[in-house]
Amino acid sequence: MADENNPNVKNGKVGLVDRVKDDIQAMKVDIPAKAKEQIEGLKDPTKTQVYTSIFRHKHDDTPRNRALGVLSNVFLHLHPAKINRDAVRYSYTWGMGGITFFLFIILTYTGVLLMFYYHPSKVQAFRDVLYLEHDVPFGKILRNMHRWAAHLMVIGVWLHMFRVFLTGSYKKPREFNWNIGVLLLVFTFGSMLGMTPYNDVRFGLLGGSIVDANALLRSYIWHCIGIPIVASILMIVHFWRVRKDGGISGPAPVMLEAEADKQRRGPKAAGE
Fold first, then answer.
1. 190, 187, 169: which is closest to 178 by C-alpha?
2. pLDDT per residue as tens digits for the range 48-101
3. Helix or strand or coil: residue 159?
4. pTM for the model
5. Sorting pLDDT into bands at 50, 70 and 90, what band is 158?
6. How far apart are CA 124 and CA 62, in angstroms?
7. Could you tell me which residues come within 8 angstroms of residue 187 by beta carbon, excluding any fewer than 6 positions away?
8. DSSP letter assigned to residue 200
9. How many whole angstroms separate alpha carbon 102 and alpha carbon 156?
10. What is the C-alpha end-to-end distance of the chain, expressed in Å?
11. Which of 12, 135, 185, 214 is 20 to 30 Å from 27 by CA-CA measure?
């Protein structure tokens, strides 16, 4: 009874009721506003908070925002903010570096799938190859994709290095990256020599005095684990050095042929 007659208690109860009423009124305003915001986000995802937290800068035509959009993105920042546009012409690069990396991805993907059906044992190895080709759905095309991707990767690496040599891209300051490329060529050949059908190609990986089960097992480990890991590390260094050395080396000056023609024809042509 004393608490009920206490004015402080009464004021506290009234204040609590008022705060609850205020919170309810705020919820009536906030909930429709947030619902409307969610609906607008579904209509245009680029205006949501999630999108702006990932892409912090607009992809417009201003050089500053384009550079910031590249530098602030975890994937795009692997590339330089600006590149020599003449250096990325297919007639200049032949696209061999990218094609070779794409073939490496195919080799990795198909190789992982083939590992589900292959046992590196003296008794089972050749039987698994026959089972893969004749009984596994799409097994033959899977094995052929892996094999032909390996052959094409060797050709791609050769053509890539031939292009680099022709354009002088191995010269200063890219000597170190040229040597990394040579090592990648060596490991590409090493992976080819470790092909897993059981034959005498693994003579250099003997586990004893003859080509036996130990040779097959050692070859399989190098083919599936050792060489791909080393090659992946070298490729990471190779891509990183391409950027650090100034991007893809290209012809000078940095000018399109159409722009050069306009410049040669004078200011009247430049205003066309």
1. 169
2. 777 777 776 666 667 777 777 777 777 777 677 777 777 778 888 899 999 999
3. helix
4. 0.67
5. very high
6. 62
7. 227, 230, 231, 234
8. G
9. 10
10. 94
11. 12
Q: Which contiguous run of DSSP H or E holds residue 15?
A: helix 7-43
The size of the chain, in residues, is 272
- Dig out the tokens for 6 from the structure: 């206490």
The residues near 237 (Cβ < 8 Å, ≥ 6 apart) are 180
% of the chain at pLDDT higher than 90: 29
Alpha carbon dihedral 170, 174, 180, 181, in 10-degree steps, equals -30
**Domain ranges across the chain:** 7-51, 87-244
Q: What is the DSSP secondary-structure string of 65-114?
A: HHHHHHHTSTTGGGS-SS--TTTT-HHHHTTHHHHHHHHHHHHHHHHHHH
Residues 217, 194 contacting (CB under 8 angstroms): no
Contact 100, 153 (CB under 8 A): yes
Q: pLDDT, tens digit, for every residue of 6-48? A: 555 455 555 666 777 777 777 776 777 777 776 766 667 776 7
Q: How far apart are CA 86 and CA 257, in angstroms?
A: 9
| Contact (CB, 8 A) for 118 and 125 | yes
pLDDT of res. 200 = 46
Domain spanning 87-244: which superfamily? Cytochrome Bc1 Complex; Chain C (1.20.810.10)
